Backbone:
């Protein structure tokens, strides 16, 4: 394994590391790492300046990631972006101080990116998805006295739950955790003063500024007077609408049938790749050009039937809303594809429960001790069960089950991330929703809360191991990096909770964002607690068809692995019926740009695609989040003030 022979590259050269024999045992690998790679006792690592810089950077990234989660339903890892920005920001601060600030060591910078990653990635997913779905269902926000501790405790549950998994998955099995290795290699290149790494850093910064500028230019006129004064009439439209479609004798205006000139979406397409992005566009085209016209004709033929619920919803502007019907089928595809993939990966699940057989090798002070796991999990679990009982009327038994499921979900998420670099947050969340539909039938808030806690904690655990993998490659002290990660949770929570209330102060504000993943969780909660009687008959058939597609695609991919890269992505097809056509088109444009770039000049594409795309996503999402907060301030500040004064000390969860 490359990381087993890695050495942290400081500006000074280091001696060559002797190779291990191919059949080396896990114990030999650990001894070799401690003897030749580990440098956590002689290189500064966990320092106040690293934590503060990482925490402040992570607060901005948390706000940007919250917006991205809500807007497009995707949450991108921030490890590489964090390590590049932290390196550039600190060296910029050194320049402004005229050299009075000393350089950070590579392990300090690694701790800084751990703090920033924890703050930016581990805190916003539960809010944007689970609490967003609760806002759409209940019409009002959960009070901050509930939201803040639940957010912090959920992320902390995941961080502490990952402690027993670290040595088995990283030291013994040496799972790749690709993003962790990439972050370590990026830091190593930066500290070796490599020209390519510096060019990547400049590319990320330039694309981040470009994305932020375009995000500002997308601000509608008349919403912020100081932006109007700064930009005048120079604007980029929110969307460029296509003409109405004609099907036979009917002319249809379809909501979302447009081009969205968003570099956030284009950058996301550059990151997720051609297969997923084209699957998004394919599914959306089928929905808009084939299924919707058929549904319009079907509704027209049955318009005379009294008491019948039409399939399609028509907005106040007269435009048909295809996704309001299609989200049922799309959710079904994603749910059954996720469950089928988990079932097919049962060997991975079995391996998750194996205990490490490696001995301690006499270096106990380096690893995070099991006593920390016990000391953290007991009070956090008690606090979480109390919050679930107090705020959501969840029984103590169901609360304890949710905590127990958190550990199982964390195992699955950590191994999936370690092997594939993909965290199945949506799949594990929907699996929990399915379980709680049986345990707490009819209670939507309990359904969403349990899923939000387990999936959010699993995502947080996977993020910790990704960052610890980076530290392992660089020879860091795992205890110190764990503390840096833990401190980051507080920074992220303090940023993301008020940002949530300010960004989306009302149900209408969240509905205007058309949040795809949030709508999926809402639909699953409704279907599992209210039954399918509230769903149009045609949508019920789409649920059945979606289930068949969701099961068939993973099975076919497993049975015909050579054809798998050419098959549509089940997740892409499912998402395409939740997102508008304009979003899927921008995704596809981004993926096609990367494909064309790779065909024309593979080396530069492999070097710069990820930094450029990451900068576009981070830049526009951060600026759009700031603009959304500024626009909503007149409405949101009174709401936030009332919440801070304690108004509505009980949750806004209605009786089920």
Residues:
């Amino acid at each position: 394994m490359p990381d087993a022979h890695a050495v942290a590259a400081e500006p000074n050269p280091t001696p060559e590391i002797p190779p291990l024999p191919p059949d080396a045992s896990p114990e030999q690998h650990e001894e070799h790492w401690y003897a030749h790679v580990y440098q956590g006792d002689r290189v500064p690592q966990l320092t106040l300046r690293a934590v503060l810089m990482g925490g402040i950077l992570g607060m901005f990234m948390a706000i940007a990631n919250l917006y991205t989660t809500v807007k497009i339903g995707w949450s991108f890892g921030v490890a590489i972006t964090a390590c590049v920005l932290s390196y550039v920001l600190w060296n910029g601060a050194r320049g402004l101080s005229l050299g009075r600030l000393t350089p950070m060591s590579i392990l300090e910078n690694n701790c800084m990116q751990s703090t920033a990653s924890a703050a930016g990635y581990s805190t916003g997913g539960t809010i944007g998805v689970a609490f967003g779905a609760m806002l759409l269902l209940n019409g009002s926000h959960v009070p901050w006295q509930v939201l803040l501790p639940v957010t912090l405790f959920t992320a902390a549950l995941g961080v502490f739950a990952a402690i027993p998994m670290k040595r088995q998955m990283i030291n013994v099995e040496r799972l790749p955790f690709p993003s962790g290795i990439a972050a370590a290699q990026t830091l190593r290149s930066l500290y070796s003063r490599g020209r390519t790494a510096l060019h990547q850093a400049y590319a990320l910064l330039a694309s981040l500024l470009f994305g932020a500028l375009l995000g500002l230019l997308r601000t509608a006129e008349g919403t912020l007077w100081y932006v109007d004064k700064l930009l005048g009439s120079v604007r980029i439209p929110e969307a460029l609408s296509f003409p109405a479609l004609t099907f036979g004798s009917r002319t249809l205006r379809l909501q979302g049938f447009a081009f969205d000139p968003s570099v956030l979406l284009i950058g996301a397409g550059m990151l997720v790749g051609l297969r997923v992005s084209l699957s998004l566009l394919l599914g959306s085209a089928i929905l808009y050009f084939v299924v919707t016209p058929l549904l319009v004709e079907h509704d027209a033929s049955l318009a005379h039937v009294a008491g019948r619920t039409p399939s399609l919803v028509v907005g106040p502007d007269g435009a048909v809303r295809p996704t309001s019907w299609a989200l049922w089928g799309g959710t079904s595809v994603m749910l059954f594809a996720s469950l089928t993939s988990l079932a097919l990966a049962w060997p991975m699940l079995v391996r998750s429960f194996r205990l490490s057989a490696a001995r301690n090798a006499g270096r106990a002070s380096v690893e995070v001790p099991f006593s920390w796991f016990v000391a953290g999990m007991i009070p956090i679990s008690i606090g979480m069960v109390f919050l679930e009982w107090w705020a959501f009327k969840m029984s103590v038994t169901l609360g304890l089950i949710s905590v127990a499921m958190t550990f199982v979900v964390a195992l699955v998420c950590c191994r999936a991330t370690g092997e594939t670099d993909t965290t199945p947050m949506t799949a594990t969340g929907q699996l929990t929703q399915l379980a709680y539909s049986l345990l707490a039938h009819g209670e939507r808030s309990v359904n969403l809360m349990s899923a939000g806690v387990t999936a959010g904690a699993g995502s947080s655990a996977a993020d910790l191991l990704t960052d610890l993998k980076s530290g392992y490659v660089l020879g860091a002290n795992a205890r110190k990096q764990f503390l840096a990660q833990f401190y980051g949770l507080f920074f992220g929570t303090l940023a993301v909770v008020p940002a949530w209330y300010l960004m989306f102060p009302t149900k209408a504000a969240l509905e205007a964002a058309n949040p795809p993943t949030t709508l999926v969780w809402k639909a699953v909660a409704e279907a599992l607690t209210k039954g399918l009687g509230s769903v149009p008959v045609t949508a019920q058939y789409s649920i059945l068809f979606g289930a068949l597609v969701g099961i068939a695609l993973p099975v076919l991919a497993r049975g015909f692995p050579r054809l798998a890269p050419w098959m549509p992505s089940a997740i892409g097809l499912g998402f395409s019926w939740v997102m508008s056509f304009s979003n899927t088109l921008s995704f596809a444009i981004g993926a096609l740009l990367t494909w064309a770039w790779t065909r024309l000049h593979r080396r530069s594409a492999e070097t710069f695609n990820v930094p450029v795309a990451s900068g576009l996503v981070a830049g526009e999402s951060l600026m759009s989040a700031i603009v959304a907060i500024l626009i909503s301030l007149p409405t949101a500040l009174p709401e936030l003030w009332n919440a801070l004064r304690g108004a509505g000390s009980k949750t806004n969860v209605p009786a089920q």
In short: The first strand starts at residue 240 and ends at 241. Residues 299 and 310 are 6 Å apart (CA to CA). Confidence is low (pLDDT under 50) at residues 1-15, 352-362, 647-656. The chain has one domain: 48-237+313-355+369-642.
